[in-house]
């Protein structure tokens, strides 16, 4: 007996008929997604400036583009599989926090390349990768304001005025952030900007009563 429900199901499935993908088509898509993924690997390796380079994250970028392309091919082949794939992927939860915004950009770049290659638009993936690389290289060369440095000085209690004079004479701007006095010893922390870090360190360390001098810099956010 033909019911409205059976007619609806038949018309729905016929409207989204399965797409037969040949082995050669699958291999071509996977090859180009792997090729662009390797390109992203090289860009991340040579353009990111980090103290701790994560090789495992970089490898995951390549695999992410290939796996995403495979998922897109699977979704295109059958509407039934695509609906099941949506349900299966909806339960996946990623717990690893992405601390660097550029890591998030590279991750999204890799996923986008996989989607584009899986859809058969390899030219778009290549143009996107070249444009992203050029943008990163250009913006990375734009100079930014000099980030402040942190000076930590440990010495005797009566050396504070001499330390302040040495800091004032070797910096463009400075501000005392912390002063800790305990058992006759003094710890001073300054936030400052200087063009002669070596001269500042030598000037402060030459003060009689100073036991240690630490000058720290960072590549994080700067204040204007």
Provide the gyration radius in Å: 29 Å
Give the count of structural domains.
2
Percent helix: 55-70%
Low-pLDDT segments: none
The total count of helices amounts to 8
Q: What can you tell me about this protein's structure?
A:
The protein has 224 residues and is an alpha+beta fold. The protein folds into two domains: 4-140, no CATH class; 149-216, Alpha-Beta Plaits. Helices cover 57% and strands 15% of the residues. The protein is built from eight helices and four strands, in the order ααααααβαββαβ. The chain has a four-stranded antiparallel sheet, with helices on one face. A hairpin with a 2-residue loop joins β2 and β3 (185-193). α5 (101-118) runs antiparallel to α6. The N and C termini lie far apart (76 Å). The model has no long low-confidence stretch (mean pLDDT 79).
SSE layout:
Layout: H1 4-15, H2 23-47, H3 55-77, H4 79-89, H5 101-118, H6 122-140, E1 149-156, H7 160-169, E2 173-182, E3 185-193, H8 197-205, E4 210-216
Antiparallel strand pairs: 1-3, 1-4, 2-3
Helix pairs in contact: 2-3, 2-5, 2-6, 3-4, 3-5, 5-6
């Amino acid at each position: 007996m033909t019911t409205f429900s059976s007619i609806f199901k038949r018309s729905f499935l016929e409207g989204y008929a399965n797409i037969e993908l040949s082995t050669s088509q699958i291999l071509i898509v996977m090859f180009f997604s792997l090729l662009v993924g390797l390109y992203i690997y090289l860009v991340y390796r040579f353009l990111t400036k980090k103290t701790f380079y994560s090789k495992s994250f970089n490898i995951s970028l390549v695999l992410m583009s290939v796996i995403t392309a495979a998922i897109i091919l699977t979704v295109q082949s059958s509407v039934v599989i695509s609906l099941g794939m949506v349900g299966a992927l909806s339960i996946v939860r990623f717990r690893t926090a992405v601390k660097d915004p550029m890591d998030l950009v590279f991750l999204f770049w890799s996923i986008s390349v996989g989607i584009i290659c899986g859809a058969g638009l390899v030219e778009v993936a290549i143009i996107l990768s070249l444009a992203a690389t050029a943008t990163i290289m250009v913006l990375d060369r734009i100079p930014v304001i000099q980030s402040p440095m942190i000076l930590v000085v440990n010495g005797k209690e009566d050396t504070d005025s001499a330390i302040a004079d040495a800091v004032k004479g070797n910096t463009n701007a400075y501000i005392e952030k912390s002063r800790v006095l305990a058992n006759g010893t003094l710890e001073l922390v300054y936030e400052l900007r200087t063009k002669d870090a070596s001269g500042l360190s030598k000037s402060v360390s030459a003060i009689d009563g100073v036991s240690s001098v630490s000058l720290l810099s960072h590549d994080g956010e700067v204040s204007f």
